[in-house]
Design brief:
By secondary structure, this protein is α/β, with parallel strands linked by helices. The protein contains 13 helices and 16 strands. One of its GO terms (molecular function) is kinase activity.
């Protein structure tokens, strides 16, 4: 069955992740100043290269907004329906999607993050299914494949896989950078659905029992902390409680580093973490999965990059989550950007869920 796929790429998506910026919208210059490298094109090529021999008619945008990635993936026959200016933005995404609609595509596949998802939804609404190839920093919307291989499967199943209504979230990046999560439901897009291949929307857990569980987890982690070990503390309210238990102010939506009961780096980027690991090779990483989505790595904590994880040692990754979060998160995922590292994780994590308590949770590798 021949399908027509509209493909577009946000060239700046995800650049803020490893350098400690909570997104890239409006801060591209700062991301570049900190040494950020483009990420989305590589993620797109990873998907497209596996689809180059499929019976697909590709509609796209010129140059870095789509055509270049298709060519790099070995797809040299596509129809360019939109030509953006040199510097691309939200208006270009919307204009390209309207051109895809006019061409009658069966699916709009986009490579980006939550901001790109919102712009795509603005243009197509519920007229055509959409699918996100994850390349942003946070990706709280439920329109993204769990990783690039899952996106390949979903694109191949266009027209056969059922579609479901999935949340598009509007994230205030300014608030996010200041350590406050301000998210609202923007709308429901139609998304092709196969189990374990589409991520869920983020959920926030604030019940009283959850708060008590965070305290119990923090008490246990503090009890076993070693004074001569560097602790890289990931983003989230559960990990923040560990910092608070030490009497330290956490970066709620960033990554902090602690040693000997003191902060040695606050809101650290990948470069800072690697430098600290040179200085303090004995280290552990504490991370918590995103509620309901289940991502332990690759969503909102790209500062803890594959290079950081390998340097600290995968065996030194500690995963923490409250029982309530785990009950609503039946499966865990990793999408670090390094497929070999993701496979090394294995098929489960032992997740600290209370004081001297843990649950084993399955890790899904879609392909």
């Amino acid at each position: 069955m021949r399908r027509a796929i509209g493909f577009l790429l946000n060239p700046i998506a995800g650049m803020g992740g490893t350098v400690g910026l909570a997104g890239t919208d409006g801060v591209v210059a700062e991301a570049l100043r900190r040494g950020a490298a483009p990420r989305s094109a590589g993620r797109a090529v990873q998907v497209l290269s596996l689809l180059k021999d499929d019976d697909i008619t590709w509609c796209t945008c010129s140059a870095p907004m789509g055509e270049d990635a298709l060519i790099d993936a070995g797809i040299d026959r596509s129809t360019v329906l939109y030509r953006p200016a040199v510097s691309t933005g939200a208006a270009d995404t919307k204009a390209a999607c309207r051109a895809f609609l006019e061409a009658g595509v069966d699916l709009v596949a986009f490579c980006g993050g939550d901001g790109t998802a919102r712009d795509v939804f603005d243009a197509v609404g519920r007229e055509v299914p959409v699918l996100g190839i994850p390349a942003g920093v946070k990706m709280y919307s439920a329109v993204f494949a769990v990783d690039p291989p899952a996106a390949v499967t979903l694109i191949r199943e266009t027209g056969r896989a059922p579609c479901r209504d999935s949340e598009v979230m509007d994230i205030d990046e300014g608030a996010y950078r200041s350590g406050r999560l301000a998210a609202r439901l923007y709308g429901y897009a139609r998304v092709p659905y196969l189990p374990e291949r589409i991520q869920s929307g983020k959920q926030v857990f604030e019940q009283q029992d959850e708060e008590r569980a965070k305290d119990d987890i923090a008490a246990f982690i503090n009890e076993v902390m070693l004074p001569d070990t560097l602790y890289i503390i990931g983003a989230g309210s559960t990990t923040a409680r560990i910092m608070e238990r030490l009497g330290l102010a956490p970066t709620l939506l960033g990554v902090d580093a602690v040693r000997g009961g003191e902060v040695v780096a606050r809101n650290a980027d990948e470069k800072t973490l690697l430098s600290l690991l040179d200085r303090y090779p004995r280290a552990k990483i504490v991370a918590s999965p995103i509620g309901a989505q289940g991502f332990v790595l690759g969503r909102g904590n790209q500062q803890i990059s594959p290079a950081v994880i390998r340097k600290a040692g995968l065996r030194n990754l500690i995963v923490v989550a409250t029982p309530g979060k785990l009950a609503a998160t039946p499966l865990l995922y990793v999408d670090s950007g390094d497929a070999a590292l993701d496979r090394e994780v294995g098929d489960s994590f032992l997740v600290v869920s209370g004081y001297r308590m843990a649950q084993r949770k399955r890790v899904v590798h879609p392909m």
